[in-house]
Amino acid sequence: MSYCVEAMDPARKRTVRLIVALSAAVLLAVALAYTSFSASSEATTPRKLASSATVGATYQLTGRVQKGSYTRRGNVHDFRVVERSGGTASVPVRYVGTVPDPFREGREVIVTVRKGEDGTFVGEKDSLITKCPSKFTKSDS
Amino acid sequence: MPTLGRALILLALAVALYGIGAALVGGWRGRRDLVDSGRRSVYAMAVLTSAAFLLLELAFLRDDFSWEVVSTHSSTTTPLFYKVAAAWSSQEGSLLLWVWLLSLWSSLVLFLTRKRLRDVVPYATAVLLGFGAFFCALLAFLESPFTVLAAVPQEGTGLNPLLRHPSMMIHPPMLYSGYTLFAVPFAFAVGALIRRRVDADWIAATRRFGLGAWLLLGTGILLGARWSYAELGWGGYWAWDPVENASLLPWLTGTAFLHSVMLQEKRGMLKMWNASLVLATGTLCILGTFLVRSGVLDSIHAFGASTLGVPFVSLIGLMIAGSVALVVSRRDTLRSEHRLDSLLSREAMFVGNNIVLVGLAFVVFWGTFFPLIAEALTGDRKSVGPPWFDKYTVPLALVLVLLSGIGPVIAWRRATWRNARRAFAVPVGSALVTVVGCVAFGIAEHVSATLMFAAAAFVIGTVAQEFWRGTGARRAMTGEAAPLAVITLVRRNRRRYGGYLVHLGIALLFVGVAASTAFQDERDVRLSPGQTTRIGDYDVKYVRATGGLDFDAGGRLEKIDLGAVLDVRRDGEPVAVLRPSYGLYPSRDVQNLGPLGRFFEGETTSEIGLKAGVLRDVWTAVSPDTQALRPIVEKGDKAFMADLPKMSPEQASTSLTLAVTALTQRYARRPPPATFRLITSPMVAWIWIGALITFGGGIIALWPAPDAARRRASARAAARVAQDLGRA
Amino acid sequence: MWIVGTPLRAGPQAAEDAHASEREGLEAARDAKYREIRELEMDHRTGKLSDEDFRALDRQLRAEAVAILRELDGLH
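Predict the joint structure of the above. Result:
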């Protein structure tokens, strides 16, 4: 019956091929899912971060730069980030390097931070994103 | 005027709705008059939206601040060039641009196909008009650019300085042209599936429009990358930002389609796959359009929370559901006529290429939408960064480049190992030489870069060999001189050699990406005038600070430029003198920032100091410490607060200008230390060179074969076939 | 209005004969087949195919072209 292998029924051959393709796709999907969960940083808000954050863990912080909180010494930028929609909770952030051009007090920022020993959240290099204020937004003035 | 604009949009909506009905009934009942009328509705929509768009542009050019969009996105100080572009910097304006381009492209396509595909066109017309009606409805009822302000302001907000780059003029229209032109293959696929007609004629039309859309979208993406590199004080060209990814997705699936459709054309294979790819590409284009304006994902391309979520999600849902229903219900029509003969054949390479491209698209999709996926699964919003993307895209890109070299030299149906060996000797040789070179230069520890160089060398070897052999064959046949032979070779085989050039361009582009990623030196450093720092092989000296003022045509201060003069040397030899600067645009917020402070606390942009080279770019940006000026500015503010009420407007403006001039000069004379970002990046230029070659190759492949030549070729082939017939 | 309305003024018009689209499809298929024959020749001349393979495939493609031509003739 060895010739059966060679002249495998076309329908069965197709099924085999389909199964191989599907399992490759599933494998890729599992790899994507697994690595993306382990490599991701939690998107969070100042309020959540202020109440619970683990030292050494990274978070993707979204909020607004608090008015009057920004100071700069050379490359070192210190500011506090408050809730996007207002509110009182805020967290201190230290960012070393160059801040994007639109960075300003009152602007919305996204920054990946790691909680340090002293409770300051240290921004990761090049992770600070400032939202452009005018593109595609209704003016809020 | 705004009322007229609104009326035009409403009329366009009405025409579109009528046209949908006419085209559908015409298609259904086989009534050509109704179908023609439906097509003319598309033309009418193009005329109406053109008029509406013109009105909007005129409002911007006339500084008519009674229009809300004009007052929030332009100002009298905005340069003329950017007033034109400001029209699409707003949500509403960009939607109008979208529907305008859609109606133009649709009109062109329907005009070109007016005598072809008669049974498919009615449904395609209806689908295109459906998109048009959708966007017109958004413009009419949800995001109208024709909103009038009750109180007309004296001055507008101005165009965001970050958008003031020549690319603003061409990047969005290109991107939108790509998006909207991809709606055409989508529409034709829907029509073809409804009529169960996925034959050669349908392929020919779809392929051509798909290629055009692919080219425009690719150009748009590249211009965006170039813009980011040359304008943003960041120094990168790609950040895996959701909006970038959204434009990449349809481009990837579109690339896959352009390849796999050849299998259907030649072998009647992969019909279902091709139909699905076209439908997916069209859907991804709408998804991309939506993503830019939804606020669903956090992106550097700022979004406002908008009212467009529900209609867009409904449209996308409808597109997906309709596509799935069509493909499933037509699966008997979409059955393959042949199966893969051999794994060593061009068909197999195309299948491989499709798997890689769709895999890439899936990876990008997953990473982009991961925040939503994670939130749905765990309740926490999480996101992945560039390292995660790189982990998957780098190996996939490697395989892709390699396949783009293997595919062209392998024969259709079945290749033999003997021929393959002959075809691969030169390309494999050049790849090996490249690897040896990388080892010799000591850069082989960057494994992925070395592999990419080798893969690119392989592709370059293939393409060169193909041109060489093709020219040789042509000369043997006609005795033409070599240069003429190359030209006629390309002219007679546009698709083939245009495609080879595209592969070459993409390989060069990836060389640029790999080299600039692996061998980039980047430093953020704080310098005072006179100090020198080292970046890569270069010594950069901060010679002095500069300060200047830019005035607009009306004599008003447009921006303050605080810059630096950098002397770049290599081994003591002067390389370039770079002048990066930092532009401060005055804010209109006198209340909070003060009469003088407003000049220093407004929007800012970086002007890059760039020494571009074929082998290496030296990229510099400066960020002056304006906080050091703050005490003086505050003192000035107090003085002006006291004195301004006593002055006439002219006096006030003159003395403010004097004060700003003095401060700027003071900065140039005695500058505080400034922060510099310095980057040396090898071979970035090859990204742009590769893109240009790709673009040129795409144009060649797209250029229609002259009718006469096509007829001649067909006649000759017919004669030969007829001869055959006689023998049989 | 005028642009859109023009075709309707001529009164209802039926689409041309049902074979029209079929014929267009076949003509496109014929042209694609001719192109394929030409490309095969190109592949052979640039050394991607051995002589035997070329002859076999060329014969097959021509047979396919002939089949299309016959079908086209059948429509007239």
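Chain C touches chain B through 45 residues (CB under 8 Å).
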